[in-house]
Design brief:
Layout: E1 5-10, H1 16-23, E2 29-34, H2 55-69, E3 74-77, E4 98-101, H3 106-115, E5 123-124, E6 146-153, H4 160-171, E7 173-182, H5 199-213, E8 218-224, E9 239-243, H6 247-259, E10 266-270, H7 288-295, E11 314-320, H8 326-336, E12 339-342, H9 343-350, H10 356-365, H11 378-386, H12 389-416, E13 423-427, E14 442-447, H13 450-461, H14 465-473, H15 478-483, E15 487-490, H16 495-519
Parallel strand pairs: 1-2, 1-4, 2-3, 4-5, 6-7, 6-9, 7-8, 9-10, 11-13, 11-14, 12-13, 14-15
Helix pairs in contact: 1-2, 2-4, 8-16, 9-12, 10-12, 13-14
Length: 520
């Protein structure tokens, strides 16, 4: 199916599941136009009630849609047509290819086709002209709307929970919506913070969604470095929209405003949308954290072509920080059929007496690092280099050129064999720092939170907290690893979940290589 956008005129909420299942094969992006007047005519429409009364219905549309068609359809429920006095032509950000209607309202659909310049006829899913939306008004909600409403959040990869949250705020303002978007200063404690999109991109996506559902409002979307943002200083705000779990934050906003002689805000609380995944790893609510978890073991970004490398073997550079679980991931991939070159073991070989590296390392660091059997004692060498960046740089300058030369020799041997391995995994902690990614078709990486890495180093290497933190500080930081990776794993949960990530990535790669092979 080609990427296409549709608009569904909804008159019968009970038909929504049936309508979405009928439509999903035609479009992958869908606007929802709620026919709240229930009218087939544009000349004498029923008076439109204030927008907040439709909040429960819209939340229901979003929440139910995922059970009908999963997350395959990007749904956006239009708010601008729900405003009293809404007239004039409907303008949307994306061109619409097809209009669908779950009831026979040809005049409304023809007007929308004219507004959106659609030549194809409306697809009527039902012949009836009955509407049940008027019965869906939420009379328990105060109908009042406010000139200025504010809300805040991370808004990483907009999901249905965000759509409900944002729409409830849009419904309750008639002029201006202020949105605070947290910067990286506030997201370090979140799950997989290194996979959160840059704040500029999150703001752009947010603006696109808000302009899509209601282009009549003024949007002020600002980055915030603290939990309170513009609420601390903006005298013109009237209402704050919060979720049930951030209600205390809304109350704290009013305490701050009161202390500064600013008008306290009305607080509107929305319920959290529950997740249908309960595995002890994903959060129990619909969240961006769950989306980031689901990105593990998938194609994070497409690799650039490497025409200088032979197509076979397909070389994966496997990297990650200390104690991130690289070696275990290497074992998992080996069990699935990859040929693994462990660069740490290759390094042991080039450290051996008689090798070029051995002589140069001993000459630079002295006989104190040599054990009684004549070999380099890495437990003595380690503290010297991890305590002094210049010494670490000196060691790398000696070892890295010999190491990559030896790796390339081993790759040449593999390529000369009658049966060349299909996939070779080059496991190397230093892959990115040494610039070896150009020797690989793609980079797969392991990340864990810094605190977890330090805990593992202390436990595994029997080091002090300070020594462990020094070791970690000498590594490539997670954001830099993520920026150069094509597939990302995290071992911060149980072994079974890390195995699932590995299997997902291996199946994806196998499918891609099969497809490439069949195209030759």
């Amino acid at each position: 199916m080609a990427s296409s956008t549709g608009l569904l005129v909804v008159s019968n909420i009970k038909q929504l599941g049936k309508s979405l299942r009928a439509i999903e094969k035609y479009v992958n992006s869908l606007y929802i136009h709620l026919n709240v007047t229930g009218s087939t005519s544009t000349t004498s429409p029923t008076p439109v009630p204030p927008p907040p009364v439709w909040g429960r219905l819209i939340s229901q549309v979003y929440a139910n849609s995922s059970s009908y068609v999963g997350n395959q359809l990007d749904l956006r429920v239009l708010v601008s047509p729900l405003r009293p006095g809404a007239s004039g032509s409907l303008k949307l950000r994306q061109p619409v290819d097809l209009i669908f209607s779950d009831a026979h309202h040809p005049e409304l659909c023809d007007r929308l086709r004219a507004d959106l310049n659609i030549s194809k006829p409306t697809i009527f899913l039902e012949d009836s002209a009955i509407s049940d939306l008027s019965a869906q008004q939420d009379e328990t909600q105060p109908p009042k709307v406010y000139p200025s409403v504010v809300l805040g959040g991370t808004f990483d990869r907009i999901h249905l929970g965000h759509k409900i949250f944002l729409t409830q705020a849009v419904l309750r303002t008639c002029k201006r919506l202020v949105v605070g978007v947290t910067t990286s200063a506030m997201t370090k404690g979140k799950t997989l913070p290194d996979l959160i999109l840059p704040v500029e991109e999150r703001i752009a996506r947010l603006r696109e969604f808000l302009m899509d559902i209601d282009g009549t409002l003024q949007y002020e979307i600002v980055p915030i470095d603290d939990p309170f943002g513009p609420t601390q200083v903006d005298p013109d705000l009237d209402m704050i929209v919060v979720s049930a779990e951030t209600l205390r934050g809304g109350q704290k906003v009013n305490e701050i405003r009161s202390a500064k002689q600013l008008r306290e805000l009305e607080i509107f609380v929305i319920d959290i949308v529950e997740s249908n995944v309960h595995d002890g790893i994903h959060e129990t609510k619909v969240s961006s954290s769950n989306i980031r978890i689901d990105l593990l073991g998938t194609r994070w970004r497409r690799p650039h072509p490497r025409p200088q490398l032979p197509a076979r073997p397909h070389i994966i550079g496997l990297t990650g920080g200390i104690a991130s679980g690289k070696s275990k991931m290497g074992e998992r991939l080996a069990n699935m059929g990859a040929y693994v070159i462990d660069c740490d073991k290759v390094a042991h070989d080039v450290y051996e007496p008689g090798q070029v590296c051995y002589e140069r390392i001993v000459q630079h660091f002295g006989q104190g690092i040599v054990s009684p059997d004549g070999r380099i004692d890495r437990s003595k060498l380690g503290p010297l280099v991890f305590a002094d960046p210049k010494e670490l740089q000196a060691l790398n300058g000696i070892v890295w050129p010999e190491l990559i030369a030896e790796v390339n020799r081993r790759l040449d041997v593999l390529r000369s064999q009658a049966e060349v391995p299909r996939v070779v995994v080059l496991e190397a902690a230093i892959l990115l720092r040494a610039g070896w990614e150009s020797n690989c078709h793609e980079v797969w990486s392991m990340i864990v939170p810094p605190g977890e890495a330090v805990r593992r180093i202390i436990e595994r290497n029997n080091l002090s907290q300070e020594e462990a933190e020094k070791r970690l500080a000498s590594q490539v930081p997670n954001p830099e690893i993520v920026a150069k990776s094509h597939v990302i794993f995290s071992s911060q949960w149980d072994h079974e979940f890390t195995q699932k990530q590995a299997e997902r990535a291996w199946q994806m790669l196998t499918k891609e290589l099969d497809s490439y092979q069949s195209s030759l």
